[in-house]
Design a protein that fits this description.
With 192 residues, the chain is mostly helical. The chain has one domain: UraD-like (Orthogonal Bundle). It has 9 helices and no strands. Helix 7 runs parallel beside helix 8. The longest helix is centred in the C-terminal third of the chain and has 34 residues.
């Protein structure tokens, strides 16, 4: 990580702390689809540091319940469903597309197995298969999906919630970088 990246993240935290509530709500909703998580994060502002932001994000997330988790899961595309990412999920879809880059160029047989595995997973558990896909190729995602199909529903819910937490923290990092770069480009006056 370059020296500029932490500085941009810290500028991003300051910018997030200073955003008007509607803009902050929209920004946080891009990171996690749980309405209660977003509202609790808004109530915790100002964060002051990236570490405080990430700590609050995880504390709030793991303090929520099943229905809140399922709401957040519903805001994700299926692993491998790259065609509908942008049209259905807007800005967070672009993030999902990057996070799922490992499915690009995968053999057709692996993509078909992912699609079938997604269907089986949803039938078994009632929510989409959720995995922090950054850095994983399609074969590794498929192996994880097959392994997790063996879990009981409560174990799998906790695993999916942990994956959501990882995705949220990854997206918070992207948000902070974006806000930090916007602020740097617009100059010091943007901090006011």
């Amino acid at each position: 990580m370059s020296a500029a990246a932490p500085e941009a993240a810290e500028r991003g935290v300051r910018r997030l702390d200073a955003l008007a509530e509607p803009q902050a709500r929209e920004a946080l909703a891009r990171c996690c689809g749980s309405h209660r998580w977003v509202e609790a994060m808004l109530a915790r502002r100002p964060f002051g540091t990236r570490e405080a932001l990430e700590r609050a994000a995880s504390e709030i997330w793991f303090g929520l319940g099943r229905e809140d988790w399922l709401e957040a899961f519903s805001h994700h595309p299926r692993i491998g469903d790259t065609e509908r990412l942008r049209e259905r999920f807007g800005a967070s879809g672009r993030w999902s597309e990057g996070e799922q880059a490992g499915v690009r160029g995968a053999p057709e047989a692996v993509l078909e197995a992912l699609a079938e595995g997604n269907r089986r997973y949803e039938q078994r558990f009632g929510w989409i298969f959720l995995i922090c896909a950054s850095g994983l190729d399609a074969a590794n995602m498929l192996a994880a999906l097959r392994e997790r199909l063996r879990n009981d529903p409560e174990t799998e819910l906790r695993i999916a919630a942990s994956e959501q937490d990882r995705i949220t923290r990854l997206r918070l990092g992207k948000l902070l970088a974006s806000l930090g770069h916007e602020q740097a480009a617009s100059g010091p006056a943007a901090e006011d």
